[in-house]
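Kindly inspect the following:
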Amino acid sequence: MTDPYGSRPAPDGHNRDANDGTGAGVAASDISILVVEDEGIVAQDLLETITRLGYRVAGVASEGVQAVCMAEELRPRLIIMDVGLRGEIDGIQAAQMIQERGHVPVIFLTGHRDVETLERAVRTGPLGYLVKPFQEVELRCSIEVAIHKHRAEIATREREEALRRNADLLTSLSLVDELTRLRNRRGFFELAGQALKVARRERHVLGLFFVDLNGLKQINDTLGHLIGDQALRETADVLRRTFREADIVARLGGDEFVALAHVQQDTSVLRERLRGELSLINAVPGRPYTLDVSIGTTLVDVTSDESIEDLIARADADMYEEKRASSGVRYVGDWDGSLPKR
């Protein structure tokens, strides 16, 4: 058959068979190619050439809209696209629409050599550009280079995505308290600062709660640090049940916790809810210690420029007033030696 592209066998004198690889251990027959060409004779010859090179033809389209639909349905590994298609959209527009739907490498075929067509084609990010007439070896090289570059781009994207996920994980871990899984000090200040800006802009009512776990040193000294850690985790669980998911709850360090929460008029409702959660957990028989906290609160004045540190200091002072009022309470009781359930 006469080859209008001036095709000829590969330089080694052999045609590629279906078992020849195209690099990276992938057989040519595993690479499906969608041919988009509106001249029937040219399309047929191109189909035969691709098959002779050992690749698999996924389908043949003659119009741009048809090519877009077939690309989405057949999901080829490569598209060989004539630039000058007849119909509603040309090859360049079709390639752009296909790229918007998925990353499929495109090799453009064209009889045009003008700069304007070239610039339009380049903007779609093709992985090859062949000017008719071309030889079979040029087509083969263009296909292999396009496939190789596309694999490299995929590998790069995957590496970048993995790096991004790792960075997100590291960021997340740096903002979370390892023991309680609440936000840590850094995580609280980052989120609370943003919430404060929104509250001032939207005039939301916020309350800041400063919570101190009472008797932690006594629990550690009497029952051991494992039980002390358990008390901290239980406090974190009580706070989770007290506040909403949209509220910001954190462990600042040691026995100190903090929460920035949306409130109605004052902080009394959430304060009582927290006390109720403590009563429920302490009602469990056989507990080795009483879980108790001192609570300090303050409302956020959205008309002021107070910082998070200022709010914490005010709530901390309020908490110490409550702590002084409850001094002398014994937190460690009779213990049968078993650990409380988590």
Remarks:
- The CA atoms of residues 40 and 62 lie 8 Å apart.
- The longest strand covers residues 206-213.
- Residues 1-24, 334-342 have pLDDT under 50 and may be disordered.
- The beta strands are 32-36, 56-61, 78-82, 106-110, 128-131, 206-213, 248-253, 256-262, 293-299.
